[in-house]
From TrEMBL:
SUPFAM superfamilies, A to Z: P-loop containing nucleoside triphosphate hydrolases, Signal peptide-binding domain
Subcellular location: Cytoplasm
Lineage, broadest ranks: Bacteria, Bacillati, Bacillota, Bacilli, Bacillales
Any Pfam family: SRP_SPB
Enzyme class, broadest EC rank: hydrolase
Name of this chain's protein: Signal recognition particle protein
């Protein structure tokens, strides 16, 4: 995740504060010095850091903090609220015109991922029951038109193109007209990447703007460029009057300063963030959720939304019944893994869970995606009968499964053992919720028994 380094630094700072029964002004000043360094190292704009620290310090040395039983927690809460304000306060939604179609003009530098992002936004709108039309207005980059057509084909969204011999202004005008005729409620106009100092190309996008009068002008910026992304946003905003910013590559190994600086410097809200390469990895940007993730508090709301939109409710219900009645088989296990994979990379899912960054920081903890693939290979090398009744898997069957999956006999044995442990744990866990749990005390006793079991690991 983009803010991993910043999160670790801030958690260390606030860990010291939480341990104090009283906070002096010196304690607050020392903490704010460390927060300031952490933000600067994350590539946050210097002026933004200065203003942010001043606001936090002013509130943190107030009477309500000094009198609190948990002054450290109050300071964390102040930082959390100020981070939310810094990134815009609340979610800035995409405009919706009273007279469809809503016109969205995409702008940005070369290589920022604008064309891919245009396809991702179309996919997101489509999932919300909208009918977008993609307009191929980048006539300068070789294969840009073809790339947009391929993306449109993948998600079943129409693409309007007049080739690379017609001016982008004319393409945009005709694209909007076609959307009106076809009943598309959103038009996403892809444009060529351009430097903010390229006068000819900047004049061209201004002409497109004047011709179609877009409801949204979104600047696509690469979060990996750090502070430069903010400078680009500021320059484009002065010339184009942006309505929003979209951050790409926020899942990469980046310090994340752009996300914390862009709203404060330009006044333009971040509306979306791209969290991966896949066409469906685009999310609405929520300042409150991002602030929670930066402080290591997780982002359970986004995780729940992912689950609701990707996991089949009926299958989940059936799975819960099988777990409760101990009917869970290796076929169910494969289906469960497939459902989890739909949510995205495990690394990103863990980032959304409170406190997980501390566990991820442990050198003994690592997520091995290859191990997951090996586990799947072992299960897929089993016969139908073996998946349904693992008890029949004797020594010769285990050898055959190991050979068929390209793994070792030890790995097959380990998986079968862990699978049995997992079934026992699931049965105990679901039992806590039923009559056997006998309320909170019985539930706690069952939970202690479950957690006391040795080597209770999930089989991946």
């Amino acid at each position: 995740m983009a803010f991993e380094g910043l999160t670790t630094r801030l958690q260390n700072v606030f860990g010291k504060l939480r341990g104090k029964g009283k906070l002096s002004e010196d304690d607050v000043n020392e903490a704010m010095r460390e927060v300031r360094l952490a933000l600067l190292e994350a590539d946050v704009n210097f002026k933004v850091v200065k203003d942010f620290i001043a606001k936090v310090k002013e509130k943190a040395v107030g009477a309500e903090v000094q009198k609190s039983f948990t002054p450290g927690m109050v300071v964390v809460d102040i930082v959390h609220k100020e981070l939310i304000e810094l990134m815009g306060g609340s979610q800035a939604k995409l405009a919706k015109s009273n007279r469809p179609p809503t016109i969205v003009l995409m702008a940005g530098l070369q290589g920022a991922g604008k064309t891919t992002l245009t396809g991702k936004l179309a996919k997101l709108l489509q999932s919300q029951n909208h009918k977008p039309l993609l307009v191929a207005g980048d006539i300068y980059r070789p294969a840009a038109i073809k790339q947009l057509e391929v993306l449109g084909g993948q998600i079943g969204v129409p693409v309007f193109s007049l080739g690379d011999k017609v001016s982008p202004v004319e393409i945009a005008k005709q694209g909007v007209q076609l959307a009106k005729e076809q009943g598309n409620d959103y038009v996403l106009i892809d444009t060529a990447g351009r430097l903010q100092i390229d006068e000819a190309l900047m004049e061209e996008i201004k002409q497109i703007h004047a011709a179609v009068k877009p409801d949204e002008v979104l600047l696509v910026v690469d979060a990996m460029t750090g502070q430069e992304a903010v400078n680009v946003a500021k320059s484009f905003h002065e010339q184009l009057e942006l309505t929003g910013v979209v951050l790409t590559k926020l899942d990469g190994d980046t310090r994340g300063g752009a996300a914390l600086s862009v709203k404060a410097v330009t006044g333009c809200p971040i509306k979306f963030a791209s969290t991966g390469e896949k066409i469906d990895q685009l999310e609405a940007f929520h300042p409150d959720r991002m602030a929670s993730r930066i402080l290591g508090m997780g982002d359970m709301l986004s995780l729940i939304e992912k689950a609701q939109s990707n996991i089949d409710a009926e299958k989940a219900k059936d799975l819960e019944r099988k777990m409760r009645t101990a009917e869970f088989t290796f076929d169910d296990f494969l289906e469960q893994m497939e459902q989890v994979r739909k949510l995205g990379p495990l690394d990103q899912l863990l980032d959304m869970m409170p406190g997980m960054n501390k566990i991820k920081g442990n050198p003994n903890f690592k997520i091995d995606e290859k191990q997951i693939a090996r586990t799947e290979a072992i299960v897929k090398s089993m016969t139908k009968a073996e998946k349904q009744k693992p008890d029949i898997i004797n020594y010769s069957r285990r050898k055959r499964i190991a050979a068929g999956s390209g793994t070792s006999l030890a790995e097959v044995n380990r998986l079968l053992k862990q699978f049995e442990d997992m079934k026992k744990m699931m049965k105990q866990f679901t039992g806590m919720m039923g009559p056997k749990g006998k309320g909170p005390k019985g539930g706690m006793k069952a939970l202690k028994g479950m957690l006391g079991g040795k080597n209770m690991k999930f089989p991946f």
